[in-house]
Amino acid sequence: MARVFSGIQPSGELHIGNYLGAVRNWVALQERHECFFSIVDYHAITQSYEPAQLEAQTFDMAVGLLAAGIDPERCVLFVQSHVPEHTELAWVLTTVTPLGELERMTQFKDKSQLQESVPAGLLNYPVLQAADILLYKADLVPVGQDQEQHLELVREIVRKWNRRFGAGFFPEPQVHHTEAKRIVGLDGQAKMSKSLNNTIGILDDPERIWQLLRPAMTDPARVRRIDPGDPAKCNVFSLHQYFSPADTVDHVADSCRGAKWGCLDCKRVLADNIIAAFVPMRERAAELRAHPERVHEILRSGAERARAVAAETMAAVRAAMGLLPAEKVALRR
Ligand code: SF4
After folding, report:
1. Is 137 left (phi over 0), alpha (psi -120 to 50) or beta?
2. Cβ contact 203:13 at 8 Å
3. Alpha helices in the chain (DSSP H)
4. Residues 243 and 298 in one domain
5. 195 inside domain
6. 42 with 81: CB under 8 angstroms?
7. What pLDDT was estimated at residue 113?
8. More confident: 117 or 4
9. Is residue 266 part of a domain?
10. 263: Cβ below 6 Å to ligand 1?
């Protein structure tokens, strides 16, 4: 059985972008593979964030994942900072990672342009990703297109470490492509992202979903109701393809091209289908929120299971690199 690692940042609510782009795929993967899923809070702090909100956002993400179908009986779900070996291995891997490779990462270049003073954590972000994956010797990593460059760097780090310290110790992880790679936000411009305020939360109530969808960007050619549209140029149509049955999708395309209905009619149908799709998840989330101790117990147990694997990997890494074992001086880790 292949081993899978994937992480998600604690951005609070799970929205349809990260649900369709990642989490729906995780739910399927946990049925077929040995999966480690992590809420990566150490990644979240590499960018500007609000410390007073991080804990609640981490809890909310755990609730969202569990409500969406992540099953702690079928996978290991944990918070990254609860397994200190992640940062330990990240440091070790920085010693074999070429600086030039980190500097040419597209995400680093994009994000560092937005900051006056660039923190080293932003540069080293892919090294922490490498540690996340390699601690568990994962074979498969489900990533979006925007992360494929990082995964290629992970493979480069593996080759360098293995060449120096232990041939074949770390496997070279492979990309597991997802069907929905990039979900565009309600602005019709950029990837759906909480920070861009262009999302619909999977746990949003029906009225909020409608209020968010109403002003969503459509084909700009449809200025008036009588103007024919092109579904291929409309993100609302893309969302229909995820949430509406095939005959509805055909009806939407035909009604759009023939100007047989208005965009608000079209969005209303989509809103109803999105609302219906997430009813069971809203119910599960309400149940979990009423019993936060259940969520805490799942995360505690997940961290323990993750640490058992992570500690074994780190012990072997330290030995291969010639570090004095703590056990020899009777120090318990
Ligand atoms: S009718 Fe629907 S698919 Fe066509 S432009 Fe309007 S919202 Fe988009």
Report:
1. left
2. yes
3. 16-18, 24-32, 41-44, 51-67, 85-94, 99-103, 106-113, 120-135, 148-165, 206-213, 235-243, 246-257, 263-277, 279-290, 292-320
4. no
5. no
6. yes
7. 86
8. 4
9. yes
10. yes
The residue annotated as part of the active site, out of 111, 137, 181, 233, is: 111
Q: Are 97 and 219 contained in the same domain?
A: no
Query: What CATH number is associated with residue 58?
Result: 3.40.50.620
pLDDT digits (tens, 9 = 90+) for 255-310: 999 999 999 999 999 999 999 999 999 999 999 999 999 999 999 999 999 999 99
Q: Catalytic site residue 267? A: no
Which of 138, 35, 155, 47 is CA-nearest to residue 10?
A: 47
**Mean per-residue pLDDT of the chain:** 94
Residue 151 is predicted with a pLDDT of 95
Taking CA atoms only, the protein residue closest to ligand 1 atom 6 is 263
8: in domain: yes
With tokens 């291969």, the residue in question is 320
How do residues 170-227 score in pLDDT, each as one tens digit? 999 999 977 656 789 999 888 888 888 899 999 999 999 999 999 999 999 998 999 9
211 and 177 in a common domain: no
Within 10 angstroms of residue 167's Cβ, the number of other Cβ atoms is: 7
pLDDT tens per residue, range 56-109: 999 999 999 999 999 999 999 999 999 999 999 999 999 999 999 999 999 999
SS3 label, residue 291: coil
Q: Which ligand 1 atom is nearest residue 267's CA?
A: 7
Our answer to whether residue 111 is catalytic in this structure is yes
- Who wins on pLDDT, 116 or 249? 249
Residues 271 and 295 in one domain: no
Range of the domain at 273: 204-277
**231 Cβ inside 6 Å of ligand 1:** yes
Nearest CA to 206 out of 287, 282, 286 is that of: 282
Candidate from 241, 250, 256 with most ligand 1 atoms within 8 A of CB, to mutate:
256
Instruction: Please report the pLDDT score of residue 181 as a whole number.
Output: 63
